[in-house]
Specification:
By secondary structure, this protein is of the alpha+beta class. The chain has one domain: Endonuclease/exonuclease/phosphatase (Deoxyribonuclease I, Chain A), CATH 3.60.10.10. The radius of gyration is 17 Å and the shape is globular.
Length: about 250
């Protein structure tokens, strides 16, 4: 099973969306998690394009105001928006659960700065529960958080802490319960999945952040086969994020 996550950049538009979906299908992925999804004309186009490509099973958070999450798949699942029951002032559209037959998949677009602390606390509690009962689960998407030492390009290049994630403490706690897929399969390596979007195509930024990630539960870890960033989405200016492609041995259905 191959699962892709890609940030649409403000919901995407009529130019970027068909190409994003076409490239995702070309990567032979069975399930796609879209972050920064919006329920508007672009969102309707995205769902239609995905449906035409065979991703007929779909669920989304009710993102009529602000950003949310859309999950589409070739396999059936039950979509559960706001699985943690967060209140309306706690960004409840940030998490969407997709309950497959053999996998609990959580797609995320966590808000910036300390606004994501409730979500990370819920994910930590979820990870502890899944570990306790041996559940097979994955959380994937745009976390807007990470390790200060390795996930901020300016820190890596300078060897000093020049910038930081406000929620690095909770992120580190989550890592003690679930395994971050890319870091696990690429020890000692550095890649960055987001760069500031600039109109000047010739500008080379060194301000990268690795914020698009996937966490897997202990029972799913033996099934993890690959975790790779697809920078074409970003280099072709379809988004300001790279895609993240995860491959697991078993099918969630």
């Amino acid at each position: 099973m191959r699962i892709l996550t890609i940030n649409l950049r403000a919901g995407g538009n009529a130019i970027t969306i068909p190409t994003i979906v076409r490239r995702a299908a070309h990567l032979d992925v069975g399930t796609i998690v879209f972050s920064e999804y919006r329920e508007n004309a672009a969102g309707a186009l995205l769902r239609n394009e995905a449906n035409h490509r065979g991703y007929t099973h779909q669920a989304c958070t009710p993102a009529t105001r602000g950003n949310g999450v859309l999950i589409v798949s070739e396999e059936p699942f039950e979509g559960i928006p706001n699985p943690f029951g967060l209140s309306s002032d706690e960004y409840p559209n940030a998490v969407l659960q997709a309950a497959f037959d053999k996998l609990q998949l959580y797609g995320v677009y966590l808000p910036g700065q300390d606004r994501k602390r409730p979500h990370l606390r819920c994910l930590i509690a979820l990870a502890a529960h899944c570990k306790e009962i041996g559940a097979t689960a994955m959380c994937i998407g745009d976390f807007n958080s990470g390790r200060n030492e390795t996930d901020i390009e300016i820190n890596v290049r300078s060897g000093r802490m020049l910038d930081e994630f406000s929620t690095a403490d909770l992120y580190a706690e989550l890592e003690t319960l679930w395994t971050e897929a890319w870091a696990y399969l690429h020890p000692g390596e550095y890649e960055f999945s987001w760069y500031p979007f600039r109109r000047d195509r010739q500008y080379v930024s060194r301000a990268g952040w690795r914020i698009d990630k996937a966490f897997v539960s202990p029972t799913l870890l033996p099934e993890l086969k690959a975790a790779e960033y697809d920078h074409v989405f970003r280099m072709d200016r379809l988004s300001d994020h790279s895609g993240l492609l995860i491959e697991i041995e078993a099918s969630p259905g």
